[in-house]
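Q: I'm a student working through a structural biology exercise. My instructor gave each of us a protein and asked us to get a predicted structure, then write a short paragraph describing it. Mine is RNA-dependent RNA polymerase. I'm not confident about reading structure output yet, so if you can add a plain explanation after the tokens, that would really help. Here is the sequence I was given:
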Amino acid sequence: MRSVIALPSRLETVLEKIYSKHKCPHISDESRQRLSSIPEDLAFDLLRKAFNSPGTSSLDRFIASKLTHIVTVTSSPAKSPPRKDGCRVSQEEISVDSEAPPQLLLAALSELEFNKAFLLLTYIPGKDLGQVEITAEEIRGWKDLSMVAFEAAVWDRLGRIIVPQQTVDCHSNGGVATLITISVMSLQTEVTRSRFISGPRLEPTGTHLHKALGDDNVLTVKFADVQKNSSTDPYSAYKRIAKNGIMVGLRRYQFFVFKDGGKGEKKVDFSTEGVKCYFIGTDSTSANDFGTPYIFSGKSICEARMHFMHVHTLPSLANYMARFSLILSKTKKLEVDMNGITFETIDDIHCHDENDKDVLDKNGKPCIHSDGTGYISEDLARMCPVHVYKGKCLRSNNVQNPPLLIQFRMFYDGYAAKGSFLLNKKLPPCTVQVRPSMIMVSKDPAFSNVSTFGSLEVVNTSNPPKRTKLSRNLVALLSYGGVPDEFFLDILLNTLEESKSIFNNKRAALKVTLNYGDMDDHNAARMILAGIPLDEPHLQDQLSIFSKTEKNDLKAGRLPVSESYYLMGTVDPTGELKEDEVCVILCSESGQISGNVLVYRNPGLHFGDIHVLKATYVKTLEEYVGNSKYGVFFPQKGPRSLGDEIAGGDFDGDLYFISRNPELLEHFKPSEPWVSLTPPININSAKNPSQLSPEELEEELFNMYLKTRFHASNVVGMAADSWLTIMDQFLTLGDERAEEKAEMKKKMLKLIDIYYDALDAPKQGAEVVNLPDELKPDIFPHYLERDQKFNSTSILGMIYDFVHSHTAEEHKPSAAEPVSDHHMEKCGRWYEKYRKEMIQAMGNKDESANEVIQRYKQASSSMNLMDHEFYGAAGLEELYPQALALYNIVYDNAVKMNNARNCGFVWKVAGPVLCSLRYIPVSFMQTIKSFPPATTATSTKTILAESLLHGYKFDSINPLYYMSPFASMILGIPALLLEGNGIMSWFEAHGPVSLVAVAVLVSWLIFRKYMNAIGCGITLVGCTFYGYVRHMLSQQMPGTPRTPRTPRTKMELLPLVNNDKLEGKV
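A: Happy to help. First, here is the predicted structure for RNA-dependent RNA polymerase. I'll explain a few features afterward.
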């Protein structure tokens, strides 16, 4: 049963008066939908006319006749043009009684693809289509353009004029109809026009929801903060939106799901980084939609959710939304026929005491060793892309072995499951085995005939461990366990010393660019490997950014530690491991390791969260996993799961810190593991979702969203900071203050229990207990950078102060070199457009700079246009002058702004060209290339500079370029011998005038003017001396030359590889 669309109270009042006066039947849902899709004032005028009309026997017919053009001017749902307000069609767009001029524009707009129509409207923020000076013929003229050309045309026609004056976000982001921000006027309590609509996104969004429905059928809605000084409900407008939906063009979007994205972290901005709300397309009033019915047409939102999972079977509302939000995980779909997979349910492995009886937790449920982990057959595992992280493939190269572990989300026949799959070579093909602890939503047999969006989605795979770092919590716990401060300070000092050398040491620079390659898509590493000198301004700037990032990491206690790894955990399938043993599989060379290891899981706070376990070789494990690697196996023996002992962990994809660092193992003394001392969890006693009507359920769910969005308590963050504050003071106290330390320890244990309970509350459907005032500190350590602070003398304070005293150096770009006026003008237009759009995007305070840059790299009009025009050239010869022109334009601006950070654009767009081509200063090229023998001089200069001055062996990557002049001279002698008679015959057959002309031509080709011979000689000597000076300066303080060079060593010609493969080669 569909919910009735509610109209504003004054419209309902007028309707009742019309029913009473004209004795006509109540209007249909379709008419209500039509009225809700236009502004309230316009709808009121329409109903007022119906009330005053002498013969209104059918109000539905009257409404349809007045609003008929709304239905006929727009095409299918996939092409419905969105409005700038995202909620209502403005009065200027629709006239009730006459043919409005915008009707022709709407008709033309409806002929565009949905992506194009949506994009066009994002370029006219704050305006109605009828307020823009544009014709229907112009819009239709853009219909057949490519997306890149369409965006360029719209920008030139509309965006260039309108967007710069607006403070809106009009860049590509999110889904096709992705982002609408809604705000409330405090005095009128009416929904204002949206601040911005952003989109469309040209790449598919990586969630199951978006992949099942399509990006254009999903809206991400951000509800702005409201002023609460009104006596009425401040959220009444938002609740009306949730009930009636949001009109984007002629398509209606309704509230569907929300997700709290701040698990375990301190949330800074709930409107951007916290709770995310999603609306989905449900129906449309466009006549063209009637021929292509939408899958959810005529269905309630509750029925729509059943197509994903039978979430109504869950016992509480908290569970309802927590489990349903699994469809919002960023995943990569495993391309497999779900109907061909055999799904088997196997028992969990229970924990047994010494009497072989089940051990129960504080809530009376059996403790299990296998929480969250199952099995997958080898053939299905091989279909899974390797090295997946948060739904993205980090590498796509072919590998022989399937991933050892796969973190997944599975939706099948009403079921929803999450956890990790362990490769099991013993399983028959096309088989997966799940345990009850992995099943989040069960199937309702009563709805077995309802089709579902079945899919097996991959979140992460067991990847090669990256550079492993400690954390503040881990440093504090290690210090508590006896690790001396000198261990951490030595790591800190070595890291800072290495960081200082990255500006003039290629080995150190390459290492840091690979460590932080995710920040710039390894662009800086490619520049180094391509031979760009370290003193190139943009490269210097990137190295400076990496250096600052590393120092920020160090200040936060993220110290790099050797012989340590983060690995995905699971349970031992063989049952051979003892209670204090683990099996650790690293790369295929070392395989399983042996000896003692430290095991920890972030964000553990308890003193016993760090275990000392014995890494053991298990031969029979190879029968299950073969040669797959990167994982840690925990035993299935003992009264309690080792994973649960370590910060309440499980095996649904959690990463565990594994260290065999000899110094840590030598000094660390473990403590007793954590045992919860809090009473049983208080499960939310709200009504069962199945007991609520569809209208009540939607109201309750949206109220949950409002509470989570506007009134959520950050118990997790406050408990963590309070614990760290007390722990910091605890570490600095001596044994003579034993009583004070004992009191601090009691407080920390209480905070730990509250912290862990708050972490598990969402998935348990439990209420979060507020933090008692006596556990809240008044002041915090200075490294937490709070207003109320004290100067910490613990190891964490020492680390912060030591790093804070080292500041990064700024490197200034040098002056630019002149190039072709044509390319300078062309590239100047590109760059100016980019700068305007980037300034516009950066003006949106809701987004971080890194997110803005990433979006522009992927989908902005400037980047798309640049890539299309730049890389559309025929070959490298044509790309080279454009790259050089863009290089100079960007660097001119960097010099003008006195900011090397502005150099990055050219490397984002033309980086591959600049890294692939060898080029030398333009002034040198213009001088030395003024006559044909210049290639010989250039080759001579290069060979002298490379082999004599710099002491490198000659291994040119362009042998043809270097050796062709010498080949021409060598071949010139036999050419004269073989063709000499022909040349002499030519001279004898022509007169003096022709001979003089040829002599002049040859002379001009060689020298062009007499002084050029001397000039070339001086230039050659100068360039040789310049190379020598550069070599000498590189041994001291780097300068800022403008041009890359050719790789000098074979190391620089290596392809970009992962750290673990590079370490042995650099």
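A: Here are two points you could use in your paragraph. The CA atoms of residues 489 and 799 lie 7 Å apart. The first helix runs from residue 9 to 22. It's a good idea to check both against the output above yourself.
Q: Great, thank you!
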